[in-house]
Q: What sequence folds into this?
């Protein structure tokens, strides 16, 4: 079973700054089957990135994903007030038993 | 517009049962794998169960033998039948849609419902 470890647990930044969130897998993520979601309090998660680096429909280009193998990064180039939320990485693949989520990174206003 | 709407949550005693429906609209349900994901209060996301377009079912070890996922494509409905409920099943339950039809990959989730809260009292 692949374990996804996100860091940091909490990231305190100001609007306009750059955010870098990490997701590290305990084993290689095949075919870069790695997604990122944003979740705000009381809401469902929203897909941001899939395939490690492809932006989902309607996602602003300040969000970008990168990485391969075991190390993946979500970057928000210039934080907007609405970007402060919890972010989860997610491994998917050839069977649902591969579905794994990271524990989340909370991005809070400094 | 794709929409997923869960219902059926509530307070249930330990050992009890509950069925969660998820109404799907805006896409052809039969073409997509569907999944239930849960989130315990203040915690992260946990995969619960998935059903393929062909009806094949998959469960996490924590719910295997107690939960049943099913679908009625004619009614555009997904279900999660939960039995032998435990306190640790307390969570918001989300239904989620697979990102790609029939590509041989159990994909990311491109649409999620708003969730329904299940509280199991001991």
A:
């Amino acid at each position: 079973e692949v374990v996804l470890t996100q860091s940091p647990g909490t990231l305190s930044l100001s609007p306009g700054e750059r955010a870098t969130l990490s997701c590290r897998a305990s084993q290689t993520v095949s075919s870069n089957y790695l997604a990122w979601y944003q979740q705000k309090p009381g809401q469902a998660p929203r897909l941001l990135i899939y395939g490690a680096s492809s932006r989902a429909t309607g996602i602003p280009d300040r969000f970008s994903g990168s990485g391969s193998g075991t190390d993946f990064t979500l970057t928000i180039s210039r934080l907007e007030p609405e970007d402060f939320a919890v972010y989860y990485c997610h491994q998917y693949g050839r069977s649902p038993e591969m579905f794994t989520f990271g524990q989340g990174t909370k991005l809070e206003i400094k | 517009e794709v929409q997923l709407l869960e219902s059926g949550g509530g307070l249930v005693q330990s050992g009890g049962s509950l069925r969660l429906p998820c109404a799907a609209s805006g896409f052809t349900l039969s073409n997509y794998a569907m999944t239930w994901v849960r989130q315990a209060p203040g915690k992260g996301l946990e995969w619960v169960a998935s059903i393929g377009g062909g009806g094949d079912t998959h469960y996490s070890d924590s719910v295997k033998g107690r939960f049943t996922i099913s679908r009625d494509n004619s009614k555009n409905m997904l279900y999660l039948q939960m039995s032998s409920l435990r306190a640790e099943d307390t969570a918001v339950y989300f239904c989620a849609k697979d990102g790609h039809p029939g590509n041989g990959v159990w994909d990311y989730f491109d649409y999620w419902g708003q969730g329904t809260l299940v509280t199991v009292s001991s």
